[in-house]
Structure formats: structure tokens, C-alpha cells
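Structure catalogue
Derive C-alpha cells from sequence
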Amino acid sequence: MGWFRRPATPVFHAALLRESDAKAAGAAVLLSPNRLLTCAHVVNDVLGRKLLSTEKPAAEQPLSIAFRGSGAATRRGTARLSVWLPPRPRPHSIAWDGDLAVLDLEEAAPEWATPVVWREMSEGLKLRAWHGGGVAITYADTVAGHEDEGCWYLDGTLTGAAIGPGYSGGPLWVRSDVTVAGLVIAQVMPDTGPLRSQDTVRRGWAVPWQTVREQLTGAGADDVVAECRVAAPSGPTCTWPGEVPGHAIVPMLRALLDDPARRADHCRDLAVGIGWEPPPENEPSAPTLDELATLLLTEARALATLTESLAPAIGSHVGDRRTLNGLLAFGRLEADVRLLSVTEHRQLGTALRAVVTAEPDLISRAAREALRFMELPEVLAHSSRLTAADVDYLVLTLEDYPDGRGGAADSLPVPALLRLAEFVASAVADPGGRVVLRAWCDRVAGRLGISPSALGERRADAEAWASHRPSPVTRIVVRLTRAGADSPENFLCEIWLSRRDGTQTPVTVPQGSLTPDEIGRLIRRAADGSQAGSGYPPTQVDVVVGADGLEIPVDSWQTGSELGDAFPDLGDLSVALGSRYQVALRCPELIGRVPTAASDMRRRWAAGDTGTLVVDEPSVDIRRLYDLLKASHHDTTRVVLHGSPEQRSRLLPICLAMGVPVVLWDRAAESHEDAARFNEFDPTGSLHKLPQRLQDFRSILYASQAPSSAARPALVWEDGDLALPGPLQLADPS
């Protein structure tokens, strides 16, 4: 059994919800933070199909998931099918083979939903199942009976709940140690084959772990099996493929906890802290160092929880503190070891959820400053306003972030999560919330061995940021790069916030290929977030493209809406990018090809609005345009190009290469006969009001669903005083 014993009751349940009524169709088993296992017939039920349908559902079909924790903790999410083993009837049997489905979660499971630990099923094993809804009263006790070619029959007593509809796909918990021995498949119905109703009152059947493993391996899902945690034959101790590296920390544990009595005291505190069961008080023996080492490196918060009691006991003893620091450093290298203890994690989650409720945008603003040289977590890339449901994911993600600078030469570095907590504390409106967060940081830093001076530097940085009102964002800068031949309509995207004081702040965006409308929504959300931070809405969007991107219809891309994000049932409230903002293109690639282009551009801007060169004759070619811009229009700031697409494609690069900062043309024009369509927004009128006139025209154009004969104006506006973001400047090696 071992000294450490798992609790007798699971702390969470997972369910699949029907599309029709959002009620639990069945349960599921959490294999890893990102994967669930359930029955294929439960997936069929969720989608409204026949229960034993064998056709594989579409992989892109989202499935609604609900996690229910102890107390009132619940979390909704979605998953998609990745492995499908359909039900296969057996001849002359009420059971069937297959009936397994592996689902990939789109967001990691909540922190409190830990993956199950499997063990092999054996006859006589006492088991417990729950309805997918997870209501406590629905528990059904049963016993493993006869094994039949890979399935196992179950029998329950005639009191209490019985396994029935809604239990399928759920784990069969071993009542003695809360490992999981198999998956609930079905109840045996009355009058089935040779059985009568009195034979099947409490009979069901299940797939044991050994069959789950065999069928997943046979289906090529070796990666799924490799992630599963499995109990050793002697008890509920977890084992993983390969050697658990617990032996490496045994010497450090021996230096700190060699005395058995002292080790027993700390390990009792550890067991209570992580929710496990220590031996009774009348069993004073301590766990072996090997058993303790294995637990610390396989149970996520065990190491941090142990050091909560060790750190105060060590006090100022330099040698022991150095050993403890080494133990913590080793844990930081292990993927399964978390930064925070159970108590620290719970306290931080409570504090940050209070902040999110009162100030939904504060954590996003603080993260952009506290973690300015790191890629922000995905939850911050989608929205600047967090919800309470986002907090667990954010904390879990930041626990894995690399440590930053320590400040003092003899101090350990300050982890990213503590830096964020300090920045949030410095700016939160509630004085009580500030006290709670700073006290939390002090306790965690003390446990981790971080010097007060190092934490004090981060706190001073945070206070300086909180007291400084940021310069308002005046424009959004977007750089587009074509995604490639496989996705010709998609782009890679970078976004910056350009402020009035000249600083430019990068915005975290998803990596990889994005659709135009996805980029439009990212731009709008970046603008919304910057307005929430400074109170000033940006009005301009500069889109940086290559020489082959000047005809991209960026102004027509859809941006969604803030109401649509919050209330999807409201329907399509989207607004085109060019209607919402003053959108202009920039093409530094063409300007950079000619050494004198930048200085020519500055000269033309300095000359003021000296008139407009309107190219409205088919006879104008490259030579003619060159002569005009060299002589009579030497200081001209603006060129309006009419004509066919072929003529424009030749003349547009010449304008930019000769330093013309403002070029306007109609993407939809077929010839010079379409020139009159531009008159609606006066392309040769006041130059400084041109972007606003163009936005007004686009607003009417896209709102009225104008006919194809309407103009589709495109604008290049190169402002020499508005520098584009340059290469990344790394301020810290970490």
C-alpha cells in the first residue's frame, strides 16, 4: 500500500453534454490535462445519432464538456474527437467490442481535475461509479464479477443507486484507493438473451483498463497510452513510461529529513496538504526517502507543499537553505512539478478572481508590462478582459514560465507569476486586495528562497508602472506576410500598439496561418484593449505589406464586435475594418529599394500640401510618371492613380520608390472610365482630412452592401515621423 495513500473519494467528475438539452449524456475519464476517454456511444448520444452508430463523427465537430469539482466548482469547455473505436457487436453475446472515443480538449482541464491513475481489474474488486452529472447522491457501488473476453461484468447490491443511463463512459473507481480499474459501458437490460429480469436487477458491464490499453494500442494511439498514469501492482503508487527521476533528489532529502521522526511529521503535513491520507497516528513509521522522492516528482504540488513546512523549520541555516534551493531548482526542471503549493494556488486563484470581477482588464494590462519580454499566454491574446473562468488557466500557464532576473547577486530569480502578482497588486483599486496579494508574494518568495531585495525591486518596478499613466495609443500597426502556397488566402500576422510618445508595444497574437477575418478581430480586440488601458480609442490602423500585398483588400476584412463576443446569440454585428478605423497601407520594402526614397519623402512632407498629381490618361507610362515626379511635381505629396490594373501595377511602385508618401487608387477600377467613382469622397481635397473622408466613404460602402460597380479605394500613407517596429531588442537572457 505504501506510506502515502490516495483519498477515498474522487474530487471531480467530467461529463459530455447533449446538443439538444445540455444535459449529461454520459461521463468521461481524464487521461491527461488535455485528453478525455469516453464511450463512442456516448458521443453518438451527444450528437443525436443512434447509440450504436459506427460512422465516425467529423473531427471538427465540437463536443460540450463539463467538469464538476468538489463544492460548487464547475467549468465548461469543448473537445474534439481524435480516436474513434466504434461499437462492434459480438455474435451470441449481449456485450460488444470497441466503443471507445478519445477527445482532445481545446483548453486544458481545470487545475483541480487531475488525471486518473489506472490499475488492472480483477474479480472481487469493489468499485464505485457516478452519473455523468457528478451529483454526489448518484454514486453506485458494484463489484467486479466474471471476465468475458475483454469485458467485465459488474454486480451491485439491491440497495442504493444502480448503474444506468448517464453512467456510460465514466471511470470505475476502486473504493480502497481511488485508482480507476475500467470504463462503464452499459447496464444489462431485462429479458436479454438467456437472462430474465430477476437476473439483471443490478448487473452491468465494463471495459477494464487492460482492454482499454490493448484496444488503444491496436488503434495506433500509442501516444495516448503513453500519457496514462498507471498504478504499480502493489498499490496506488504512480508509474510512468521510463524511469522516474526520484533517485536524483534522495541525497538532498536525506540531508534535510534523515531523522525518521522529523520526516514523519513533515510528511503528515504534506499528505494533509495535498489531500492524501497519512497512516493512523498509532503508526509512527516514516515513508522511505525513495517513496517520498517519487511522490514529490509525480504529484504536481507535493514538492511545493512539502517546502511550505520545511522552509520555516530551516530558518536561517545557510547549508540547509542551499540544499532546499537545490531541491526546488530540480523540481523546476520537471514537467510534472508545479511552482505553487496547494494552499498558495488556492489563495492566488481566489485573489485574482476577485480582481477580475472588479476590474476585468487589469490583469491583461499588468501582464503586458510585467512580462513584456515574454510571449503572453493565449488567454491574454484573445481578449483584454478576463473572466473568472480564465484565472485557473492563466495561473497554470504562468507557473511553467521561465524565471526572470533575481535583482540581487545572491538571490534566486523572481518567477513570472510572482512578478505578475506584484504588478496586479500595485494597480488594483481595492486596498484589501493589494494587501492580500503582497502578503501572498512575501510568503511564496520566502519559501522559494528569493531575497527581500530581489522581490523589492520587482515591487518598485510595479509601483512605478502603476503610478504612470500610459501614453494613449494613437494607432495600431499590423504587419502581414502571406502564409504560403498551402493557404494562399491566409496570412501570418504581427500587431503593435503605437503610442503618442513614440513607444510601440507588441500584442500577443496566435502563431501560424490566420484568415483575414481572424486578423480583423485581433486588430479590433487590440484596439479595445488599448482603449481600456488609457481611455483613448485609437482611430488609425497602418497595415505593413510587401510589394506583392498592395492589392490586399484589408479595409473589407470583418472585425466582429465586442457585443458579438459577449453575446453570440445576437447574430452578425460585425463591422468592416475600413468602416471602424482609418486604414492605410505601408510598404517599406519598395521605399527601401531606392537609397534616396526616404529623404525624398521627408522633402515632400516638408513642402506641405502642394497639390495632387492625378494620373488619368492611358498614355502615362513609367517614363512619363518619372519625369512628372522629377520636374513639375518634384514636391508633390499625393498621387491619385486611375486606369487599368496593369497600368496601376507598373506605376504604383514608381510612386513609392520616388518618395511619394500618399498614393490613392481604386482596386476595382478596370479603366480610366471608372475615375468618376472617386468623386464621392473628394480624393484631391484637404490632405489631412483624406483618411477621415475615406473612412466615411467606406462606412457607407460596406454598410449599404454597395453594388460591384462602386469604387474600392486603397490608400498608401507613409509618414516618415511614424517609425515602424524594428528588430526585437532582448533586454534579458531569460
In short: The two ends are 43 Å apart (CA to CA). Residues 196-200, 234-244 have pLDDT under 50 and may be disordered. The CA atoms of residues 5 and 277 lie 5 Å apart. The chain is about 35% helix and 20% strand.
